[in-house]
């Protein structure tokens, strides 16, 4: 259970959940890498107004603050050490295989479907398979089966599909004449993709932030046109924030650690390291000595801080390396970013303000004009969404949230 936020449901939800239908409607929209401080009236007028009239809360990402791990945490309510998606790239010693975030084939079920993990979209369908239907617009991990169940409506990754078209497709699912979706998740890869190239405070990123705001405006317009707005519970969030990196803040492991001694998996600034047999102590000691004067921390797996909830899975390897905020760490770096000497990254300590993601909610289940400043962690979203969808008793769907 979450240690800090046992009352998240009571604090964010209305005193009375209005029964507008036999299957309440929930729409969750994620904008990758959208920092919470991007919400301001001149940049995001729609989101600013939505926060004013709905709920705005200080949500924390789970550690590591990476895309795939946090989207799976949001969907399942489990920390990464429980659901097993521990980075965008990871090695599984049991399978002797490497997972890449570009692998979206249905055969990848073994990476995702770990009991007792159950995404909210499958929970929604299991409660009443004849009346409740879920949909996913490009949400990571929604393409696979869980407990031999698939999501009813699915549109996989498709960069060519315009953002308005994605919204229109979601509305089509929700207004289907015989099997309308009442639980819809949507993922957009911006402003993250642009921030990685140009940095989180670039004009290029602000253009994507404005596009995200216009996309929510289009969603609200379509919900209004179809008569769904007053019945829809909308959560707009992100998976993590974004920190600024400068070219002089790059650590290259090859400069002090022999590459033949180890394999590494993950993505800067967080790496799992598997030393080659016989090199375990040498790799760790070399990294530890370097960390005394360089901007990173190295842990043996068993010594990773408990508050990270990030040590009890086989895909977290014997040595773990974490760069300081604003630093990148690679085996080597032979490329350049489009933004020149400034770019962006994430993955750092989830308590850092730069890693704070967006959370805004609005709809009949939520309070109005409420700002919750006390931090809560995103595992708590799962029991919140269970309540919004009225999936009772919620105890049949366990999670790390509360």
UniProtKB/TrEMBL annotation:
Keywords assigned by UniProt, alphabetized: Signal
Segment forming the signal sequence: 1-22
GO molecular function, one term: hydrolase activity
Any matching Pfam family: Phosphodiest
Name of the protein this chain belongs to: Uncharacterized protein
Highest taxon of the lineage: Eukaryota
UniProt cross-references to PANTHER family, sorted A to Z: BIS(5'-ADENOSYL)-TRIPHOSPHATASE, ECTONUCLEOTIDE PYROPHOSPHATASE/PHOSPHODIESTERASE
InterPro entries documented for this protein: Alkaline_phosphatase_core_sf (IPR017850), Phosphodiest/P_Trfase (IPR002591)
UniProt xrefs under Gene3D superfamilies: 3.30.1360.180, Alkaline Phosphatase, subunit A
Taxonomic source organism: Medioppia subpectinata
């Amino acid at each position: 259970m979450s240690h800090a936020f046992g009352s998240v449901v009571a604090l964010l939800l209305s005193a009375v959940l209005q029964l507008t239908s036999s299957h309440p409607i929930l729409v969750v929209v994620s904008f990758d890498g959208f920092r919470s401080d991007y919400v301001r009236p001149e940049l995001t007028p729609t989101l600013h107004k939505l926060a004013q009239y709905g709920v705005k809360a200080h949500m924390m990402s789970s550690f590591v603050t990476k895309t795939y791990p946090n989207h799976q945490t949001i969907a399942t309510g489990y920390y990464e050490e429980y659901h097993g998606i521990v980075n965008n790239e990871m090695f599984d010693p049991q399978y002797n295989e490497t997972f890449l975030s570009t692998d979206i084939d249905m055969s990848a079920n073994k990476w995702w479907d770990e009991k007792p993990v159950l995404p909210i979209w499958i929970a929604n369908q299991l409660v009443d398979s004849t009346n409740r239907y879920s949909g996913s617009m490009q949400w990571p991990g929604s393409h696979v089966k869980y407990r031999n169940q698939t999501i009813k409506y699915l549109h996989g990754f498709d960069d060519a599909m315009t953002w308005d078209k994605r919204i229109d497709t979601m509305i089509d699912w929700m207004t289907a004449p015989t099997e309308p979706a009442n639980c819809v998740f949507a993922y957009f890869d911006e402003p993250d993709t642009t921030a990685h190239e140009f940095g989180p405070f670039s004009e290029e990123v602000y253009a994507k932030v404005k596009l995200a705001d216009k996309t929510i405006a289009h969603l609200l317009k379509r919900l209004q046109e179809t008569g769904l707005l007053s019945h829809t519970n909308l959560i707009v969030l992100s998976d993590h924030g974004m920190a600024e990196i400068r070219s002089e803040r790059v650590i290259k492991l090859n400069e002090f650690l022999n590459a033949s001694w180890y394999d590494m998996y993950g993505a800067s600034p967080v790496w799992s390291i598997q030393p080659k047999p016989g090199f375990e102590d040498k790799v760790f000691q070399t990294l530890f000595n370097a960390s005394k004067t360089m901007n990173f921390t190295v842990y043996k797996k068993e010594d990773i801080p408990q508050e990270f909830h990030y040590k009890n899975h086989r895909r977290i390897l014997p040595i773990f390396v974490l760069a300081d905020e604003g630093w990148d760490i690679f085996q080597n770096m032979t490329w350049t970013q489009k933004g020149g000497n400034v770019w962006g990254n994430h993955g750092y300590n989830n308590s850092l303000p730069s890693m704070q993601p967006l959370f805004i909610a609005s709809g009949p289940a939520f309070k109005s004009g409420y700002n919750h400043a006390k931090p809560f962690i995103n595992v708590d979203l799962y029991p919140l969404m269970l309540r919004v969808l009225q999936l009772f008793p919620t105890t049949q769907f366990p999670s790390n949230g509360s």
